[in-house]
Amino acid sequence: MTRSPLMRYGIAMLASLAALSLTLLLFPLIWPMVSPFLFAAAVFSAWYGGLGPGLLAAFVSGAGTGFYLLLGGHPFPLNAPDVVRVVSFASATFLVVWLSAGLRQANLTLRALIEASPLAIFTLTPEGTVVSWNAAAERMFGWPRGEVLGRYLPIVPPEKENEFRRLRESALQGRSLIGVEVRRLRRDGSAIDVSISTAPIGGDRGRVPRIMGVVADITERRRAQDALQAREEVLRLFVEHTPAAVAMLDREMRYVHVSRRWLADYDLGDRSIIGRSHYEVFPEVRVQQKEVHRRCLAGESARCDEDSFRRKSGKLEWCRWEILPWRTDDGDIGGLILFTEVITRRKEMEEELRKARRQAEEAYQREHRIARRFQSALMVPDEVCVPGYAVAHTYRPALVEADVGGDFYNLFHVDDRRVGVVIGDVGGKGLEAAVIAARVQHSILALAMQERYSPARVLDGVRAVAATFGDPEVMVTLFFGILDRETGALTYASAGHGPTLIWRQAEGRVQALMPDGPAICGLPAGPHTARETSLGEGDTLFLHTDGLADARHGSHVLGWERIERLLAGHSADEPAEILEAMYRAAVAHSRGHLCDDIALVALRRLAADQTPTTATWVYPPRMSRRLDTGQPGRHRG
After folding, report:
1. Helix (H, G, I), strand (E, B), or coil: what is residue 390?
2. CB under 8 Å to 626, separation ≥6 — which residues?
3. With the C-alpha atoms ordered 317, 338, 277, 226, is the resulting torsion angle positive or negative?
4. Do the domains at 117-217 and 378-636 have one common CATH topology?
């Protein structure tokens, strides 16, 4: 509490006047001992108000007593020893006042330091009762000074009583403790980690009347330490158990963490190499590699995809490595991280892989040649001619370089008047699809030419043959028709094949011939029904596989309606030109990326005075270049 000057000096005057009054009143009884009251007043004033009030009290008391003695208003003689005694008393009083004031100032300074300290400071009796409690202790533990003074220290958890007793006993034995980390309780019951230092206060003959405690809150520091330890443990476990060969080294190239894969790859066994030098573990490290380490410790990164090294046994090994500097929380380079992979086996396998690739390429070429022979056998021979009709046909695989797929078509003479027209699509590509297509074609030819079956019975027979393929997932769509070339009558059946289109010249419209049964697969289905139509002069029969309609860009397909419009728009063109227009439309719509093979056949009935033709339309091999320049395809026939 701050005392005003008026209060301090007023109390000093009152104390000195009271002491002087008592001295004069009791003078006959205490003479020649006149000092007790005056001395007490001076010391009290110095303690209460400081040096100034203490000197004032001493002066007033001494002056009053001296004035009384000098006036001689008393029956006691004043001799020389008495004068000396009075002067000595006055001198001693002034000295004590000065010392008391200094002690008071020191106490005030110490109290201010304790109150202003960010550390919690308190004093205890030997039994643990709180004697003093500074503001920092209030903030740290939540206990106000008024509630904690005079009671047993409330911040000790019940389970820590033995620990607290040992700390008190140590102080009572005169020992000081510094930085003991313990856990204490706040008023709200929460626990905090603190660092406590204790020291004994005063006492004589081995007795310690007070114990001082200084406490720092280390909760945040402990959390940071725990987090750091947890992070170090996670890092250690990560490095140790990562499936790659990883080593973490400090700036002296000593191992900090190492993965098990590192130990296994370099035949180090289960022995611990933590703390050992990398160059001690691998004395064969070359000078060039040490220079790389030096540069990386300066902040660079380095990697090599293929590097050779020789084992202690003399065996040459190959590895791929990368070296990165790692940094401390302060941003300084703490050392290096080495990532390595022994690739000796990979190098050994490269030659084996090259040999296997050559063998696979040779096998592929053999299969490809066989498949191309099958594919050629499935197409219309160039020399086929249908009197009274203009014929055009083409086959284009989805990939120009493949040349082999599951699409097929054919034109063949059933007898002198009738011509068989077939187009189909086997799910899949390559030799397997070509073989199935060949079996289907063979079945059609046998049933149509030898057994003289109708198209419906031919498809039923092919469906029976498909049941013997042994693979229920094989699916074939098929259109087969028999055309009477003299009358134009067309009898047909379709197994799941997309609409076959006819351009009706006289009517100026497109007619779609829809399938009458499901696609051919290993599952049973009902018998097909033969349907009939006819081709008049100028009518064009257009057959295609689903690769044309399914040409897509994103989710948008070319579609059947677009094909019908294209057929109508090019109805005046030659059959080969119709095929070219159809194929160009598919390529343009798919941006040059067809996803399925395309087979196209166009058959137009001619007028009596027209000459029949057969054409195979061949799209240029360099597809994208032809499209960009607008160059037309070639017509052969």
Report:
1. strand
2. 619, 620, 633
3. negative
4. no
Distance CA 53, CA 44 (A): 9
User: Can you tell me the distance from the alpha carbon of 19 to that of 628, in angstroms, rounded to the nearest whole number?
Assistant: 125
Q: Could you tell me how many residues make up the chain?
A: 637
In this structure, what token pair is assigned to residue 596?
């399925």
- Single-letter amino acid, residue 290: K
- Written as one string, the DSSP assignment of 493-545 is EEEBPPPEEEEETTTTEEEEE--SBPPBSSS--PPP--EEEE--TT-EEEEE-
Looking at domain 224-346, its CATH architecture is 2-Layer Sandwich (3.30)
Alpha-carbon distance of 154 to 140, in angstroms, equals 13
**What DSSP letter does each residue of 17-51 carry, written as one string?**
HHHHHHHHHTHHHHTT--HHHHHHHHHHHHHHH-H
Residue type, 259: S
The whole-number pLDDT of residue 138 equals 92
Calpha distance 340→480 (Å, rounded): 65
Q: Which two tokens stand for residue 611?
A: 């000459």
Domain 117-217 - what CATH class? alpha beta
pLDDT at residue 632 in the model: 39
Three-state secondary structure readout of 127-141: CCEEEEECHHHHHHH
Q: Are 248 and 152 in contact (CB under 8 A)?
A: no
C-alpha–C-alpha distance, residues 225 and 327, integer Å: 18
CA separation for the pair 341, 321 (Å, rounded): 6
Q: What is the pLDDT of residue 620?
A: 46
Q: How far apart are CA 375 and CA 370, in angstroms?
A: 9
| 531 Cβ neighbours under 8 A, 6+ residues apart | 491, 492, 493, 513, 516
How many C-beta atoms lie closer than 10 Å to residue 606's C-beta? 16
Q: Please count the helices (runs of H) and the strands (runs of E) in the chain.
A: 19, 24
Give buried/exposed letters for 40-78 (b at 16+ CB in 10 A, else e). Answer: bbbbbbbbbbbbbbbbbbbbbbbebbeebbeeeeeeeee
Residue written as tokens 């005075």?
A: 609
Looking at residue 544, its pLDDT comes to 95
Q: Residue 167 is which amino acid?
A: L
Q: What are phi and psi of 521, to 5 degrees?
A: -150, -170
What percent of the chain is helix, strand and coil (3-state, nearest 5)? Answer: 45, 25, 30
CA distance 161 to 151: 15
Mean pLDDT per 10-residue section of the chain, whose length is 637 residues = 73 75 66 62 71 71 61 50 55 60 64 80 91 91 92 92 90 87 92 91 72 89 76 67 81 89 82 89 86 92 86 79 87 90 82 79 64 56 78 78 69 91 83 78 86 88 82 85 95 94 96 92 84 95 94 91 95 94 93 88 90 62 33 39
> Tokens at residue 435, please?
């073989």
Q: Please tell me the CATH superfamily of domain 378-636, with its number.
A: PPM-type phosphatase domain (3.60.40.10)
Cα separation, 440 vs 462, whole angstroms: 6
The structural domains of the chain, with segments of one domain joined by +, span 5-115, 117-217, 224-346, 378-636
- Between the two ends of the chain, the Cα-to-Cα distance in Å is 122
What is the radius of gyration, based on Cα positions, of the chain? 57
Dihedral angle, C-alpha 294, 295, 298, 299, nearest 10 °:
-140
Cα–Cα distance list, 593 to 149, 395, 399 (Å): 90, 16, 9
